[in-house]
Amino acid sequence: MRLFVSPGSPGSLPVLAAAGRARGRAELLISTVGPEECVVPFLARPKVPALQLDGGNYLFSTSAICRYFFLLSGWEQDDLTNQWLEWEATELQMSW
């Protein structure tokens, strides 16, 4: 897998924290890219963070990437985790 992050991107920090939880469960390459670099080939606009899965598919929602890493780490998600992810996506990222 390959995780694309950008300095200053509000979604990068939670994704990196979630990736740390899944450390050792799968091989992960972390690439730092510019905020205007298109890493997901089928999106019209640049979007980071993005996770390229081993099969070539992409996840480009911060919440979806975090959920993927949580599942990979074996951490069972609960309502509080989902609430945090939704708050981060709707409140925190909107303020950036």
Commentary on this structure:
It holds the Pfam family GST_N_5. This is Methionyl-tRNA synthetase 1. It comes from Oryctolagus cuniculus. InterPro entries: MARS_N, Thioredoxin-like_sf. The chain is α+β, with helices and mostly antiparallel strands and 96 residues long. It has one domain: Glutaredoxin. The protein is built from 3 helices and 4 strands, in the order βαβββαα. Strands 2-1-3-4 form a 4-stranded mixed sheet. Helix 1 packs parallel to helix 2. It is globular and about 35 Å long. The N and C termini lie far apart (27 Å). The model has no long low-confidence stretch (mean pLDDT 87).
Write the layout of secondary structure elements.
Blueprint: E1 2-5, H1 12-21, E2 29-32, E3 50-52, E4 58-59, H2 62-73, H3 79-95
